[in-house]
Amino acid sequence: MSRLYTAMAGLVEIAEHFGADMPAPVAVPTEVIEGNPGLVVLQGRDRRLLKNMSWGFPRLTREMRLHGDPPGRIGLVADLTNPMWEHMVVEPRYRCLIPLTHFANPDGEPGEKTRTWFSVKDEPLVAWAGFCRNTPEFGPVYAGMTMTANGMVEPYNDRMPVLLARDEYDRWLHGSIQDVIAFQFRPPIADDGMAILNTQDRWKSGKLPVGIQPQMALL
Length: 219
Known about the structure:
- By secondary structure, the protein is mainly beta.
- It has helices at 11-18, 62-66, 169-174, 177-185; strands at residues 4-6, 20-21, 32-33, 37-43, 48-55, 57-59, 72-74, 76-77, 95-100, 102-107, 114-120, 126-135, 139-148, 159-161, 163-164, 194-202.
- It is globular.
């Protein structure tokens, strides 16, 4: 899937939806791209917590080390058996919920790509199944797990976020590795359960989906 999503909701709405507290000041970015700050929900000792982290774990290949390059970012978890993830994904303490209202995929020819947005019908706020950890390179970071795309998303990308229903939040945050695997390999949300919004907005325009931009003044 692409590396762009938005959570167009206020902090109070997000906190109430996830039953989460804000132990420190946090912000809801209007759009999130890999490497930039995003908002996640963590499981605290007694209650869920909201926290800002940057999207993308550090990634340093052998070639990058040989050339003395700084680490890059990887914000999508597709292969749970990859050595980068295999030891972390078994531990519930490394899991988080990523609030979003829309995720985007590019459409069009190189240099002319536009934003196409996807959302869940009748669910103004949803959770993307995520992992998080404190890293020496970038501090607290997170990444989102992906799955095979449904028929609506597939023409734009063969992967999409693993989206969770409200009654699945606890299972994600506390479940076993078998639960994690089951979430990734279950059938994706049905096509008719999602909405698509094609736009003429350039991929790097920073423009949000039509219909939610006026809400910016209320946040």
